Amino acid sequence: MSASFDALRRRALSLGAVRGFDHAMQFLLPVVLVRCLDTATFGEYRLLWLVIGTVMAVATLNMCGTLFFFLPRSSAPRKRLYVHQTMLYLALAALVCAAAIGPWNPLLPPAVRPLGEYGLLVPAFVALWVAAILLEHLPTIDERIAWQAYATLGLSALRTLVVGAGAWASGDLRVVLWLLLAVVAVKLALLLVYVQRRHGLGRPWFERAAFAEQFRHSAPLGLSNAFFGLRGQSDQWVAASLFALSSFAAFSVAALVGQVVHMFRVSVLEALLPSMSRLQASGDVAGMMDMNRRGNVLVATLLFPLLAFAFAFAGELITVVYTASYAEAAPAVRLYALGQAALVVEVGSLVLLLRQGAFLLWVTACALGLSVAVSWFGAQHFGLAGAAAGSVLAIYFDRALTLRRIARLTATRFGELQDWDALARRLVLAALSAALAWAVVAQFLQGAAPLLRLAVGAGVLGAAYVATSLRGTLFGLRISKGQT
CA 250 to CA 257: how far, in whole Å? Predict the structure, then answer.
């Protein structure tokens, strides 16, 4: 198991590096756009991606995710069938979503109406995005990490360079939309090439019984994921409904904290899931649980210091990256950092493998209602920061109920579900390192340029975290040898 997990850890770190580059490009592109577009137009750009996020939460119904369950345990012809059925479902979902968000729909919420001036560009982009999303998952499910890396890196660089250059030259969101449409068309073409080479495009394409089984497995989890996604976006919809586009743009910048967390969690999750699926299929529930525990500690080691840094230096981060025009988002960034820390404890893989979609659907529906109510109340009474409170509270509500359910199903004591001691140590070390970095910057760099404060703060935090982590590891090894 140790050698196997070491190989999986290398795979997870490789995926993490690739996704890190992808998210760095996604991070870099808005940095360019805020300097090319006025605050209201940048708000429209962020509104476009809020629409995309909402569509993706609802439309896919986790059909891509179920392939983690079916492909590792299937023969080649059955793999081809499940892949083809997923592609057909996504194509149909793409058409439905394009029809639903077009400017002709009188039921569109008022917050989305500003995008109507761009005509067919928005529904066309949404349709292609939904149809091509399988490329972000399938090579990893097939454990072809190199293919996934080349596709992800190439498309990220292409999108950043082409869209960034177009925005810089024109300052026009319509030009940006045309360029985004071209990039996602390339992505769809790559997906077709990959499927043809790896699985083939011949028969079988559809089998009613197999599709019914796949859909029954995906639908509860898909609805649960939809509620989870909507819960994470509900505060942004509240901000888009209650505040001006410029204020919504600032608030959406704060929500980018969640992308960093998602990058780390998904990289480790997708690297471990095929192996966890095989363990569960063979009846080794203890091995599956151990792999989840160790994966979460790995995520915490990398993620906690980044969240602590974002909390301590939120104002400087926003000013340097997005300019002082969006500084009002700093309190929301701090709230998001507190909430995202709980997502280190990843439970989605266990829920998938234990087939607990119906339970998770109930939990996420309740959490969505709680999130919307709290965010609406918070936004009206405390401004942008209050709008972020709902999703933060809902995260902890979700994790508490889901962990209790997993403990009961696997006959595992709650204290043994995760390596709580290791997680707590990393959280405390990250918080103390961030506090030290903030104190040093406040004492010696008061009034200095934000970029200098960030650089020094990052250096102090990183050095303190690595030093204390290494000391703790060496101390633990000495104790272990002494006991031996």
Answer: 13
